[in-house]
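User: Fold both of these, please.

Assistant: Here is the first one.
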Amino acid sequence: DIQGTGAVIAAGVANALRLADVHPRDQRIVVYGAGSAAVGVVDAIGAVVAAKYEMPTEDFVKSVYLMDTKGLVTTTRPGELAKHKERFARTDVAPEDNGK
């Protein structure tokens, strides 16, 4: 299920980038939901971007913003972060800005 959904969404994102004539490095992807399905979808988009635009995965990950029930997924927010969210946790948000 996750792979199928990811493939459909990744195709949509790739087509939107092509139609808009923009490079993924100039875009931001915001995903409301940070469960395993959302991360699977983002991974699928990342695979398409890496293959089509020769963009390193690390650079793609920097353009992704995951939101969950507690807000933006960051490394500085209180509490433990689920393992599948760690790779996408923002490091550029100060602790005092969490939840704003």
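And the second sequence with its predicted structure:
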Amino acid sequence: MADPVAPYNGSTSNQLPPIFAWLQGWATRDGCTRGPTVFYNKVNVTGLEWTDCRGNAIVLHYRIRGEGHVWPFVTFHLPGGTVGKSFSASALIWLFFQQHPLPATSPTG
């Protein structure tokens, strides 16, 4: 199922760029010098990463084929398409934030 909300290849009628162009824009803004490289490739999921970015940033992308605009591995129905069980989006996002914490700042009064 194609994503009706954010078509992967973009939409001229809704003036939406292709997802890859959007990702490349983030990689450029973050000053990434490597990528995209495939770091995950299983069944219907491909993971791409841009690395060697300014400030230890990283750009990650998981393309899930055949699921539409959904949150992977949820237990409730979402109207955006079929929900797959390829991986847990929540677990991957939590892992990302654990591996890439923001620097601690002092609270302001």
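Residues 19-99 form one domain.
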